[in-house]
Amino acid sequence: MGTKRQLAKHVRRLAEFASSEGSLTDLFSGMGSVAAEHAGIRHIVTNDAMSFTGVLARARFLGKNRKLSASDLIHTLRPLMREQKSYLAEKFRDELAAEARVLDGSAAELIAHMDAVRHAGCDDSFRRRAINAKTWSGAPAFKMACLYYAGGYFSLRQAIEVDAIRYAIESVQKGRNYEDWLLGAWLAACSRVINSPGHTAQFLKPNSHTATKRIQSFWRRSIWDEFKNALADLEQVGPEPWRAGNRALISDALALFEGKQLAGTGVIYADPPYTKDQYSRFYHVFEALYQYSYPKISGIGRAVPVDERFSTGFCLVTQVEASFITLFEGVAALGVPLVLSYPSDGLLAAADSSVKEIAKGRLQITHHERILHLHSTMGASKGVRSKPTTENIYVCHPI
Question: For 370, which of 239, 288, 302, 326 is 20 to 30 Å away at the CA?
């Protein structure tokens, strides 16, 4: 959400300034912008609390050179995808017919359809179908997108393709080494057509003529076509020997300091959350799709309940200071430098604290740069897509 691509080159420069030894560990790696900037330069360890990001990290930054091409895999997957697509189209035949009638209709017709769509968050029969699907294998087990997200984040026709592609991937992956590449491309394809404002806290509704046409246009796009493109686009980063020395972790960042996962780290980069919004709320669709475990969902956004999603103290004004203290003391105990980026208007300021205050007695700030940066407003709810802020990048060394 903070678009770390804009900061990645600065982070690389300051990480090299802090220490040229050992690997770089990115504690909040997200989509891997900082890791990609270090390709072939130094080994990297990515970490994120959201497991769906790990599949993209593994597909890009780990693994041997691929021997099969995207077209080879598409050739293998296509008949399996078509088989499941036909199976699901028959199961949801009536719902598909109802959807087809509103794809060229008015805003009123489309919103009435979206409001009437049944899904596992609101309909007992769909909930039972989801519970049953968790126990099945083969074709009946692959219909989660249809039961959860059709008529909202995706059209039903798209949801059928989402499930059909996942079925095909799982059907050919026994003993193969391409699962991360395939699943990463599958998630990327979903992200390219999903009916949402840049995040998945909830889907867009046809509240204007423009929005109606946008939703109808997006709902017609083919997930399969996007998957083929994404598979070709999702390339491995860096040379094979570099990738062999990298790792991809899925963990609460602060929990990593409790074990030996950070052994061999030469410098740590941290870009912790800076608002009161828990990130898991904005990515719940991708997380649920990747895990494909038919979780309980509820609400307009069809989200997993709050108490079952990951949360961090960095997003709580009552806990943000304690979270920074844990971070700084963990780095100090590890005895390596820290490169930290955090905006001036971050939640820490709301807690009447600051990076410099918390660093006292724990880490020495040896360098501080201020960079004008743009942060996402999470869907432009206030009329703008991004807002300017001052991003502070600190280089800290153990005392």
Answer: 326
Q: What is the pLDDT of residues 258-317, one digit of tens each?
A: 988 999 999 999 999 999 888 888 899 999 999 999 999 998 899 998 888 889 999 999
Q: Report the alpha-carbon distance of residue 331 to residue 2 in Å, rounded.
A: 23
Give the chain's mean pLDDT. 93
User: Mind giving me the DSSP string for 205-257?
Assistant: ---SHHHHHHHHHHHHS-HHHHHHHHHHH----S-HHHHHT-EEEES-GGGGG
Judgement on whether residues 146 and 240 belong to the same structural domain of the protein:
no
Kindly state whether residues 192 and 91 are assigned to the same domain: yes
Q: How far apart are the first and last CA of the chain?
A: 33
Task: Looking at the structure, tell me whether residues 391 and 250 fall in a common domain.
Answer: yes
CATH of residue 16's domain is: 3.40.50.150
Domain span including residue 214: 70-233
Report how far apart, in Å, the C-alpha atoms of 172 and of each of 159, 169, 176, 179, 291 are.
20, 6, 8, 9, 18
Dig out the tokens for 195 from the structure: 């009916």
Q: Give the global pTM.
A: 0.92
Considering the domain boundaries, does residue 294 fall inside one?
no
CA 359 to chain centre: 30
